[in-house]
Write a structure and sequence with these properties.
The chain is of the alpha+beta class. It contains two helices and nine strands; from the N terminus they run E-H-E-E-E-E-H-E-E-E-E.
Length: about 120
């Protein structure tokens, strides 16, 4: 369902190791908002719900809630280094429209609820 590049999984493992909490995993999801209608959420969590889907991607425990899963099939997460530092990039084959900042999208079937102008 989700692919994480080797460089991104290495960075996630490094960040998890720096956290003090035990049993943390990567939660990836989607919520309504952003300039295009939906925005990505990605962060560490330690609470897993019964309806969550659990994945092991390159040795990283990834949790996706059922509602988000339909928007994230085929999602690719990568880590890119640049002159100004590094950052995660997301490629979503389900997105038909994305915003300039890359954190917001909509699909051919669902537009979500775009945020007010200037709230990307």
């Amino acid at each position: 369902m989700i692919e994480i590049s080797e460089s991104a999984s290495d960075k996630i493992k490094e960040m998890l190791a720096a956290e003090e909490g035990q049993g943390l995993f990567l939660r990836v999801g989607v919520k309504e908002g952003g300039c295009s209608g939906f925005s990505y959420g990605m962060g560490f969590d330690d609470e897993q719900k019964a309806e969550d889907q659990e994945l092991d991607v390159n040795g990283v425990k990834v949790i996706v809630d059922n509602e988000s899963a339909k928007y994230l099939r085929g999602l690719e997460i990568d880590w890119k280094e640049g002159a100004m530092g590094g950052g995660f990039t997301i490629h979503n084959p389900n997105a038909t429209v994305t915003c300039g900042c890359g954190s917001s999208f909509r699909t051919a079937k669902d537009a979500g609820k775009p945020a007010a102008a200037g709230e990307c």
